[in-house]
Amino acid sequence: MGKKTSEVLFVAIALGTAGSSAAPPASWPGFRGPTADGHAGDVKLPLTWSKTENVAWVTPIPGQGWSSPIVWNGRVYLTSAVSGKPFKQPSPGIYGNDFIAEMQAQGLSSAEINRRVRARDNEIPEESGEIRYMVYALDAATGKVVWEREAFKGLPSGGRHRKNTYASETPVTDGERLYVSFGENVGLFCLSLDGEILWKKQWPPQPIYLDFGTGSSPIVRGGRVYVLQDSQVESFLTALDAKTGQEIWRTPRTSAVSYKSSWMTPYVWTNSVRTEIVTTGHSMVRSYDLDGKELWRLSTPGRVQSTPTPITLGDVLYTGFGAQDGNASRPIFAIKAGATGDISLKTGETSNGFVAWMQPRASPYTPSGMALGNRVYFAHDLGIMGVYAGDTGLEIYKARLGGVGHTFSASPISAGNRIYFADEDGVTIVLEAGDEYKELAHNDLGELTLASPAVAGNSLFIRTESKLYRIGK
After folding, report:
1. Rounded Cα gap, residues 17 and 40, in angstroms
2. Which fold has domain 15-471?
3. Is 99 strand, coil or helix?
4. Distance between CA atoms of residues 473 and 459, nearest Å
5. Euclidean distance between CA atoms 196 and 201, whole angstroms
6. Which of 266, 317, 372, 434 yields a CA-CA distance of 20 to 30 A from 87?
7. pTM, entire model
8. 310: closest CA among 250, 245, 228, 402?
């Protein structure tokens, strides 16, 4: 989503620590899996596939959505936005400034340029019409739809970028209930695992930057659902009771910057010091304790994208801010556990007492990173991937992921010593983790893919623009 305008995207937290139920062997309970970092463990995923090879099943999914599928106890859950009108279609790649430059060269006014850009890239509610916000449950063994539920129906309160959808937030389960968000401008819906709506929480709609739409997924931990709302007017992090939906606390998020919207899914970081909720947005990283009290913050200058979810190696957290231009300022920070107060770097600094290192041009714009071994992998949307030593931040290598012509919105997953990167054209590039670039396979499903994959058992679940595939039998 995550995604996603940023393919935008919301997240889920490890079910081993998220609820009272133990995770079944084949589960992927939310965005980026059981540990919310894309790791599938030592499962044996297929190395190669096509539209027919190594495909257990493929199921058409109505409507449009870049939410990731999740898997629990033999069922696959996902969301979609369904309209009686055709949606404005996305296309791969960064929506850069070439179009604007061409119009400026023609002498068009700023107002006319803005109008044409919005007409090309945005869809207003009147264009999409009334939306049915849908939840689907599929049998993981056969791909057949077990049930479908309309969570909400109505005209969107705001528009969306055509590379986003009205269903970009990934559901999450604690093994007892299913929590589904369609963005805070529509609401959070709690369902039983058999599709009964148990409660819902809705907030007054808020404007999102340039009408890009929403994308931050809910997370679940210890009987609470955490929701991040970063809009241009009201921003907050809130905790709801998982059983009832009642608000336990709400912490306002304020800042002086004008670019307040974000699309990132918060990350629950359990380290040797404590458990905390890490967020980005408002040109800063902010971490909170489980009662909503701010623990620390780190600011960065400039207008930056807040979409990727953090990753960790032990007691170090890696997070940053993206930009469309791969050469722009898009820093990654390595932050040590136990930070307190304002830990922002001063001008000219690359480290301090709690920031182990910083790389100024490493963060993706949309996809989250991957940590494996003592390496951290960050692939920018334009296909340039940097690999860095987790302890020192030294560059191990840099490569064009998949070769020329690949762009990325989905976040990678790992299985054993392999990393799987799904590009926007539906090609999954499989790498062997190590100190040099080594491609193992290219696997093409031939359809636009912005949703992040899911894993359950030895199978990979990939959502394309119109279908859901189970890869591996």
Report:
1. 16
2. Methylamine Dehydrogenase; Chain H (2.130.10)
3. helix
4. 7
5. 15
6. 266
7. 0.93
8. 228
